Automatic annotation (TrEMBL), chain A:
It catalyses: L-glutamine + H2O = L-glutamate + NH4(+); N(2)-formyl-N(1)-(5-phospho-beta-D-ribosyl)glycinamide + L-glutamine + ATP + H2O = 2-formamido-N(1)-(5-O-phospho-beta-D-ribosyl)acetamidine + L-glutamate + ADP + phosphate + H(+). The lineage of its organism: Bacteria, Bacillati, Bacillota, Bacilli, Bacillales. It comes from Jeotgalibacillus salarius. InterPro entries: Class_I_gatase-like (IPR029062), PRibForGlyAmidine_synth_PurQ (IPR010075). The active site is at C86 (nucleophile), H195, E197. The gene is purQ. This is Phosphoribosylformylglycinamidine synthase subunit PurQ. Pathway: Purine metabolism; IMP biosynthesis via de novo pathway; 5-amino-1-(5-phospho-D-ribosyl)imidazole from N(2)-formyl-N(1)-(5-phospho-D-ribosyl)glycinamide: step 1/2. Keywords: ATP-binding, Cytoplasm, Glutamine amidotransferase, Hydrolase, Ligase, Nucleotide-binding, Purine biosynthesis. GO terms for biological process: 'de novo' IMP biosynthetic process. It is found in: Cytoplasm. Part of the FGAM synthase complex composed of 1 PurL, 1 PurQ and 2 PurS subunits. One of its GO terms (cellular component) is cytoplasm. Part of the phosphoribosylformylglycinamidine synthase complex involved in the purines biosynthetic pathway. Catalyzes the ATP-dependent conversion of formylglycinamide ribonucleotide (FGAR) and glutamine to yield formylglycinamidine ribonucleotide (FGAM) and glutamate. The FGAM synthase complex is composed of three subunits. PurQ produces an ammonia molecule by converting glutamine to glutamate. PurL transfers the ammonia molecule to FGAR to form FGAM in an ATP-dependent manner.
Automatic annotation (TrEMBL), chain B:
It catalyses: N(2)-formyl-N(1)-(5-phospho-beta-D-ribosyl)glycinamide + L-glutamine + ATP + H2O = 2-formamido-N(1)-(5-O-phospho-beta-D-ribosyl)acetamidine + L-glutamate + ADP + phosphate + H(+). Keywords: ATP-binding, Cytoplasm, Ligase, Nucleotide-binding, Purine biosynthesis. This is Phosphoribosylformylglycinamidine synthase subunit PurS. GO terms for biological process: 'de novo' IMP biosynthetic process. It is found in: Cytoplasm. GO terms for molecular function: ATP binding; phosphoribosylformylglycinamidine synthase activity. Part of the phosphoribosylformylglycinamidine synthase complex involved in the purines biosynthetic pathway. Catalyzes the ATP-dependent conversion of formylglycinamide ribonucleotide (FGAR) and glutamine to yield formylglycinamidine ribonucleotide (FGAM) and glutamate. The FGAM synthase complex is composed of three subunits. PurQ produces an ammonia molecule by converting glutamine to glutamate. PurL transfers the ammonia molecule to FGAR to form FGAM in an ATP-dependent manner. Belongs to the PurS family. Part of the FGAM synthase complex composed of 1 PurL, 1 PurQ and 2 PurS subunits.
Length: 228, 84
């Protein structure tokens, strides 16, 4: 399986993402500059964290108009897995691939620490390797992770099981229903504030994020690779 | 050239933690008459007149980029004929 790590000016988790896929997961991966206008050759799209365009105006608001985002939308429509982490999640929200928006953290502080998450939905292509309601430890690092949407949207998210991750104990940023990650209705676009790519090896403090990437690969193999 | 002043504010339904902190600070300074503080953004656009109605163009800019209507409201005023 071949992954693209999209690189925007100001991305800073692109190398972590690349490392997670290449060294820990053992799959193919390439960096793709935001100006690129073709993602045809890739099977999965990864939007890394960081501060694209310095977070000017709103997080993700400028990156969302990059050339490559048209291709990300196409990939999402084609059913390819699209994962946005942190700033990548913010870009997915701004682009409309996921519903809602991000507000400043309720406590107004940038939060950078490991948090415990609950895997609320382990039926998605991103979470099949997890147990139902499994507790995992993954770091967060953000100033704007306070997820917000209108009541109608929130009801839809719950009804369609689109809430994939929740903060398990304390809610670090004030997000609605302690939401840490959601998918689109089709289930092939996941946005999450915590960084699974920073939790892929015990040396890093946790390897709990690795199963997310393994889930994507297994899902892809099951549907694309015919075994004799 | 036409100057357009755009104000972007958080929607009423959205909590504004920054505004709350500023309000508390004003109260600490004995300005107890302050009931609420909302912090927003102010943008100035300088626009070359064209055939397209300026209100229509600015509305589109606000909806697409300048504001995120999930969490923000916007309003703008058009100032005629700014000398360069």
């Amino acid at each position: 399986m071949k992954f693209a790590v999209i690189v925007f000016p100001g991305s800073n988790c692109d190398i972590d993402m690349y490392h997670a896929v290449k060294d820990e997961l053992g799959e193919e991966v390439e960096y793709v500059w935001h100006d690129e206008a073709d993602l045809e050759q890739f099977d999965g799209i990864l939007l890394p964290g960081g501060f694209s365009y310095g977070d000017y105006l709103r997080s993700g608001s400028i990156a969302r108009f990059s050339n490559v985002m048209n291709e990300v939308v196409k990939a999402a429509e084609a059913g390819k897995p699209v994962l946005g982490v942190c700033n990548g999640f913010q870009i997915l929200l701004e682009s409309g691939l996921l519903p809602g928006a991000m507000l400043r953290n309720q406590g107004l502080k940038f939060i950078c620490r490991p948090v415990e998450l609950e895997v609320v939905n382990n039926e998605t292509m991103f979470t099949k390797a997890y147990q139902p309601n499994e507790r995992i430890t993954v770091p967060v690092a953000h100033g704007e992770g306070n997820y917000f949407c209108d009541e109608e949207t929130l009801k839809q998210l719950e009804k369609n099981n689109q809430i994939v991750f929740r903060y398990a104990n304390d809610n670090p940023n004030g997000s609605l229903l302690s939401i840490a990650g959601i998918t689109n209705e089709k289930g092939n676009v996941l946005g999450m504030m915590p960084h699974p790519e920073r939790a892929v090896d015990k040396l890093l403090g946790s390897a709990d994020g690795l199963k997310l990437f393994q889930s994507i690969v297994k899902h892809w193999r099951d549907s694309h690779v015919v075994t004799a | 050239m036409i100057k357009v002043k755009v104000h972007v504010t958080l929607r009423e339904s959205v909590l504004d933690p920054q505004g709350t902190v500023v309000k508390n600070s004003l109260h600490a300074m004995n300005y107890h008459e302050v009931q609420d503080v909302r912090i927003g953004k102010y943008l100035e656009l300088l626009i070359e007149p064209s055939d397209r109605p300026i209100e229509e163009a600015v509305k589109e800019m606000c909806e697409k980029l300048l504001a995120n209507t999930v969490i923000e409201n916007y309003e703008f005023e058009v100032e005629e004929a700014v000398t360069q």
